[in-house]
């Protein structure tokens, strides 16, 4: 049963599988769950059958108004629709060959990424200020709307801005480069400003309800860690900060699994000024500790080169080699270096 | 009786031993019917997750009593029948030594790493890999998925691999690249790996039941859980839930050990780390230690600590083992998986 269900329902964002894609939670009514219970699940933030299947039982028990017997019935119904068992690596490989990758705008950068930013997983960009993180995010907001044959994702973009650096006029400039209609491009980007870490997490619930309505290809959180640095201060609050961040990143991964969006998060850095300061200046490392490090599937380090050049290095990835690529920032966004 | 039973069934201590012990290996639970247990009761045992006679023999009586539809008298009868088939008594260390000499070890792909492991990853026990991000845990897991399929004389396990992925980092194309290196057919290699994605800790535990039913059918040499602890970090938060987390984790690890004992697979789990930022921060930066506390520490038989060296080099250190010395080995990560360092 697991193998055939997996054949029918593939997890990543594939164009021909859109009709199979994430099941809206109303599908559970066909399996005998009362409409009232389905509404309770929806109010608790579970908009798809996948979301219910992926949630641990104890979290479902906490939803008001759903008894233990009902929870078991719901889990059983959800497990029938969503593949949760074993499949062979060959089948997974066949599915993975069709994962959409969103072009970054620079061919050299796409090359070290084996095609572009992968949908269905979390990519983390970190680097000092002016290293190009936000520019790359803006470029992706446009390229994700391109048709598949041009390296796009044929979907909308969602932008959660924690630093107040989102500039729609940049999107218009980049849209011109790809020959897209500026007004349409802006219309296809859902934007929200996050004011604190709790708000940032709540925005994800709203994002889930939007993603079930229309097809989104990209989700950006710029920056995922900025608010944590000031909402939680000092060693005393460190563990609370890490727990909150862990939950936030887990929710992001859940969205990537459910809807097959490419999740791109930017991260700030900290300079380590002890010890090795003698040798080569302060070492720059991304913040968020091991929680962040283990949560992102692909980690990219960006740094400034000469003039408008930027260099991107693959730091951690399950399948990409550690390589560097140079790209350039211009009024048209991220592009290849013009020699 | 115990020594002759031990002699007949070499499978108990090292089930993945010899190829000729395959027919002795784990007994499918239907064999209990030959001992007079009703077919209906056997089916109830199977539905409760017991696929082999060993599984029933290793299970405490109180857990068997909880299975619906089997009375106390029947439980005693079942336990008696299972104990006749599975050696549960004393044997001499000499015999155990002879059995252990034939335990299969799966090569890691790097000769230096195999050397400090005295042959490779041991089957029938749990090996834990821990390290920071990009230390090579997932790459080593992928390489083992291929090497476990190699013939015994090439250091393989001649069996399939089972991969439970909690982080979404499984990449079949890596398996294809590694398969080329060993001259194996890529499509066959992929077909021999059973893969499942775990979405929460309850699901992760349920997958083990499915794994057991698969292992009775075909011979598996390796089982990888990458990573065993990632989901625990977010399913259970804070000190208040710590004890619930540890209990759940303990049950999960116990089930893994049971699978290793029953079927003689090599169980490899990868673990995340936490940085300890107090105290010793003055000296050498935060100390890295694996998560899971003492529950994890005591459950894994062999603990390996991986860290990044220069560029593609990685260093593996044996941190805890009943018989390996604390030694370090350098290896390299390349498109062909884990290899020796090319000087």
TrEMBL record, chain A:
<keyword id="KW-0539">Nucleus</keyword>
<dbReference type="GO" id="GO:0000794">
    <property type="term" value="C:condensed nuclear chromosome"/>
</dbReference>
<dbReference type="InterPro" id="IPR010995">
    <property type="entry name" value="DNA_repair_Rad51/TF_NusA_a-hlx"/>
</dbReference>
<dbReference type="InterPro" id="IPR003593">
    <property type="entry name" value="AAA+_ATPase"/>
</dbReference>
<dbReference type="Pfam" id="PF14520">
    <property type="entry name" value="HHH_5"/>
</dbReference>
<dbReference type="InterPro" id="IPR027417">
    <property type="entry name" value="P-loop_NTPase"/>
</dbReference>
<dbReference type="InterPro" id="IPR011941">
    <property type="entry name" value="DNA_recomb/repair_Rad51"/>
</dbReference>
<dbReference type="GO" id="GO:0042148">
    <property type="term" value="P:DNA strand invasion"/>
</dbReference>
<keyword id="KW-0238">DNA-binding</keyword>
<dbReference type="GO" id="GO:0070192">
    <property type="term" value="P:chromosome organization involved in meiotic cell cycle"/>
</dbReference>
<dbReference type="InterPro" id="IPR013632">
    <property type="entry name" value="Rad51_C"/>
</dbReference>
<feature type="region of interest" description="Disordered">
    <location>
        <begin position="1"/>
        <end position="20"/>
    </location>
</feature>
<comment type="subunit">
    <text>Self-associates and may interact with XRCC3 homolog.</text>
</comment>
<dbReference type="GO" id="GO:0007131">
    <property type="term" value="P:reciprocal meiotic recombination"/>
</dbReference>
<feature type="compositionally biased region" description="Low complexity">
    <location>
        <begin position="1"/>
        <end position="13"/>
    </location>
</feature>
<dbReference type="GO" id="GO:0000150">
    <property type="term" value="F:DNA strand exchange activity"/>
</dbReference>
<dbReference type="GO" id="GO:0003697">
    <property type="term" value="F:single-stranded DNA binding"/>
</dbReference>
<dbReference type="InterPro" id="IPR020588">
    <property type="entry name" value="RecA_ATP-bd"/>
</dbReference>
<feature type="domain" description="RecA family profile 1">
    <location>
        <begin position="98"/>
        <end position="269"/>
    </location>
</feature>
<dbReference type="GO" id="GO:0005524">
    <property type="term" value="F:ATP binding"/>
</dbReference>
<protein>
    <recommendedName>
        <fullName>DNA repair protein RAD51 homolog</fullName>
    </recommendedName>
</protein>
<dbReference type="Pfam" id="PF08423">
    <property type="entry name" value="Rad51"/>
</dbReference>
Automatic annotation (TrEMBL), chain B:
<feature type="compositionally biased region" description="Low complexity">
    <location>
        <begin position="1"/>
        <end position="15"/>
    </location>
</feature>
<feature type="region of interest" description="Disordered">
    <location>
        <begin position="1"/>
        <end position="22"/>
    </location>
</feature>
<dbReference type="GO" id="GO:1990426">
    <property type="term" value="P:mitotic recombination-dependent replication fork processing"/>
</dbReference>
<comment type="similarity">
    <text>Belongs to the RecA family. RAD51 subfamily.</text>
</comment>
<keyword id="KW-0547">Nucleotide-binding</keyword>
<dbReference type="GO" id="GO:0042148">
    <property type="term" value="P:DNA strand invasion"/>
</dbReference>
<dbReference type="GO" id="GO:0005524">
    <property type="term" value="F:ATP binding"/>
</dbReference>
<dbReference type="InterPro" id="IPR027417">
    <property type="entry name" value="P-loop_NTPase"/>
</dbReference>
<dbReference type="InterPro" id="IPR003593">
    <property type="entry name" value="AAA+_ATPase"/>
</dbReference>
<dbReference type="Pfam" id="PF14520">
    <property type="entry name" value="HHH_5"/>
</dbReference>
<dbReference type="GO" id="GO:0003697">
    <property type="term" value="F:single-stranded DNA binding"/>
</dbReference>
<comment type="subunit">
    <text>Self-associates and may interact with XRCC3 homolog.</text>
</comment>
<dbReference type="InterPro" id="IPR010995">
    <property type="entry name" value="DNA_repair_Rad51/TF_NusA_a-hlx"/>
</dbReference>
<dbReference type="GO" id="GO:0000730">
    <property type="term" value="P:DNA recombinase assembly"/>
</dbReference>
<dbReference type="InterPro" id="IPR013632">
    <property type="entry name" value="Rad51_C"/>
</dbReference>
<dbReference type="GO" id="GO:0000794">
    <property type="term" value="C:condensed nuclear chromosome"/>
</dbReference>
<dbReference type="GO" id="GO:0000150">
    <property type="term" value="F:DNA strand exchange activity"/>
</dbReference>
<dbReference type="InterPro" id="IPR011941">
    <property type="entry name" value="DNA_recomb/repair_Rad51"/>
</dbReference>
<dbReference type="GO" id="GO:0007131">
    <property type="term" value="P:reciprocal meiotic recombination"/>
</dbReference>
<dbReference type="GO" id="GO:0140664">
    <property type="term" value="F:ATP-dependent DNA damage sensor activity"/>
</dbReference>
<dbReference type="GO" id="GO:0070192">
    <property type="term" value="P:chromosome organization involved in meiotic cell cycle"/>
</dbReference>
<feature type="domain" description="RecA family profile 2">
    <location>
        <begin position="280"/>
        <end position="343"/>
    </location>
</feature>
